[in-house]
Structures are given as C-alpha cells and as structure tokens.
Specification:
Layout lengths: L4 H17 L1 H12 E2 L4 H25 L7 H23 L6 E2 L15 H13 L4
Antiparallel strand pairs: 1-2
Helix pairs in contact: 1-2, 3-4
Protein name: DUF3040 domain-containing protein
Keywords: Membrane, Transmembrane, Transmembrane helix
Pfam family, one: DUF3040
Length: 135
C-alpha cells in the first residue's frame, strides 16, 4: 500500500531532522549502503547449513562410537566435541559473525550512464520528480 501524502511529508520531515541532528549517522548509513554483505548471503547461509549438518553427523557419530571404543572412549568424546565445534562454526557462518564485509564492486557502466550520487541522493531526486507538478 503506498504512503499517503501526509505520511510522505512526515517521513521527509523526519529524514531532514535526522540529517540536521546527526550528519555523522547519515554518512555512516550511506557508507553501509555501499557495502555488499547481502549479495553473497544465500551462498553463505547454504554453506552454513551444510556445515551444521556435517557437524551434527560427526557429533552423533562420536556419541555412538564412545561406548564401542572400550579402551579409547576419549576418542569418541573428542569426535563429539569436534562435531559440536563444526555445528557452532556453521551457525556463525549463517549469521556472518566473524566475516569481513566486502566493498561494493565498481559499476561497469560508464560514469555518464550512472544516475550519480548515493542511494539517498537518488531517492531524493525521485521524490522531487514526483512532487513537481506536471506541466
């Protein structure tokens, strides 16, 4: 559902107040918009899930093997602990904890073809075009 005119006006006022009150935050938000951690997210999540499944299999194998290794029960316990560590690494991979965000690749279009400016600048331009009365 599109925003009403009043809601658009209030949103524009809030945005203006935020940029006046905390320009450092606005700059930080613009910089974070340039970082692409989300582009590889599906691949990272899939890898994390596979890592978790492997870890669960290793953990269960360690638990099952422990009673059968009469003189070497510590080996089964060690395998179980390694499986648990693999599961934790899979969860960390899913949530992207400990990974560095990658910088956004430069656009391959020529500079003249780009609309220019940051995301917020482009949104502002779109907003102004919509607000102009059609002649």
């Amino acid at each position: 559902m599109p925003l009403s005119d009043y809601e658009k006006q209030v949103l524009a006022q809030m945005e203006a107040q935020l940029s006046d009150q905390d320009p450092k935050l606005v700059d930080q938000m613009r910089e974070s918009a340039k970082i692409t951690g989300l582009g590889s997210r599906p691949r990272r999540v899939a890898f994390g899930v596979v890592l978790m499944l492997i870890g669960i299999v290793v953990l269960v194998a360690g638990l099952i093997a422990t009673p059968y290794l009469q003189n070497f029960q510590f080996v089964g316990t060690l395998v179980g602990v390694i499986g648990f560590v693999i599961v934790v690494l899979g969860v960390l991979q899913i949530f992207g904890i400990g990974t560095k965000p990658k910088a956004a690749p430069e656009s391959r279009r020529p500079a003249a073809a780009r609309s220019g400016g940051s995301f917020m600048d482009r949104q502002q331009e779109k907003w102004e075009r919509r607000q102009r009365p059609e002649l």
